[in-house]
Write a structure and sequence with these properties.
alpha+beta; 4-stranded mixed β-sheet
């Protein structure tokens, strides 16, 4: 099952934060409902995301592609190592993970 379309839909129709630092900030505030992390996310940033996700009982979805792939899926011309989903919009991503 591919979550490419639901990820793109969440970013386009919902409220999301792009990047590991923004995702960590969203987790610290308790705003994030899900964090999508690229396979090549830097280890220290992934560990921070994992730590705060455990504290706030937020799910982490490990995207199998690189940060370039994740950026491409959401239509951005740059690398995106993590995406925090605040509000999924029209996406069903929260029900799929």
């Amino acid at each position: 099952m591919s979550l490419n379309q639901p990820i793109a839909s969440a970013v386009n129709t919902g409220n999301c934060r792009l990047g590991a630092r923004s995702s960590i900030d969203s987790l610290k505030k308790g705003d994030a409902k899900l964090v999508v992390v690229a396979a090549n996310c830097p280890r220290d940033e992934y560990e921070d995301i994992e730590h705060y996700a455990q504290l706030t009982e937020t799910k982490i979805f490990e995207f199998k592609g690189t940060s370039w792939d994740l950026g491409e899926i959401i239509g951005k011309p740059f690398m995106v190592s993590a995406i925090a989903v605040i509000e999924p919009g029209d996406s069903e991503i929260l029900k799929m993970v």
